[in-house]
Amino acid sequence: MTQPTTIRRVRDRQRTALSLAASGVPVLPLRRGKVPFGNCPACADNACGGRPNMKTPGPCRCPGVCHAWAAATTDPAVVASPAWAAAWRRAVSVGYHPGGAGLTVVDLDDADAIAWARTALPATRTVATARGEHWIYRGAMRSVNAVRPGVDIKSAMAYARYLGPGTGTTTDLPDVVRALAVKEPSADRPVPHALTVPAGSGSGECPHRTPAYLERGIAMAEQRITEASSAVHATVYRTFLAVLSRHGRCGCLTDTHITRLFTAAQAKGETLRHCTDAWANARTRLGM
């Protein structure tokens, strides 16, 4: 690739980002692998006191592209700043924070997911992706991966890749999409149901005889993650493993419990995808 071509592509990305920011959409550069830039050395392990789970971007005064999705901004001076210039040179695409713009992206990853959406969801603005489509709705909600095969929800505390304006008119976020996060949890998360024991346990009753027992376990797990001063990735994984080992086999863990754990991890700088992967790896290790 010639140098002029590289410079032109960098400028194109910056122009796209500035245009989105001017329309109220928080933007950020995405590096190879379509992932955001992580914390800089000065902000590692949230040493700066930043809070990546804040409802508004800009968790600290770090001048660089920091705190992953929470770096997203609508400030044109930041997008065009010298501090961000190096990141744009390394970036491969423009990302944005849907929740920060009051939007929700239903990410349909394959033809089967698209076919399902066309029968189950109301029409809205649609953007083609490499393998599927993004359906974009007006309204924000919690982000959840794998709510059903080939379907992710990207909104609050998440990012999406900008792939163009798309076609159609953006419509209001329907209840059917909100319900996906509750009624159709992913294979990476346990399904909430009545207090029962897994087959072969021998005891015939759930170990969580009182709600306080499970609540105490979740609170301790949150504290363990929050107090981690180093090796956050490993701490999150070990904590998820411990929670699932003790509380995951009888089906008592609910979507609310898991959200609390993910929120604690993201407050330490973990991305939603890191949380989802750690949870899935813990389940796999336990044979769940």
Mean pLDDT: 80
Total beta strands: 10
Structural class: alpha+beta
Element-by-element helix/strand order: HEEHHEEHEEEEEEHHHHH
Overall 3D form: globular
Question: Sheet bearing the most strands, described?
Answer: 6 strands, mixed
Radius of gyration: 20 Å
Q: Helix count, per DSSP?
A: 9
Low-confidence sequence ranges: 52-58, 183-204
Query: Share of helix among residues?
Result: 25-40%
Q: What proportion strand? A: 5-15%
| Termini Cα gap | 47 Å
Note the main attributes of this structure.
alpha+beta, globular, 9 helices, 288 residues, 39% helix, 4-stranded antiparallel β-sheet
What do you see in this structure?
By secondary structure, this protein is α+β, with helices and mostly antiparallel strands. The protein is built from 9 helices and 10 strands. The chain has helices at residues 3-22, 76-79, 82-90, 111-120, 175-183, 211-226, 232-247, 255-267, 272-285; strands at residues 27-31, 35-36, 93-96, 103-108, 125-128, 133-138, 144-148, 151-154, 160-161, 171-172. Strands 4, 5, 6, 7, 8 and 10 form a 6-stranded mixed β-sheet that branches. The chain is globular and about 65 Å long. 38% of the residues are buried. The model is unreliable at 52-58 and 183-204 (pLDDT under 50).
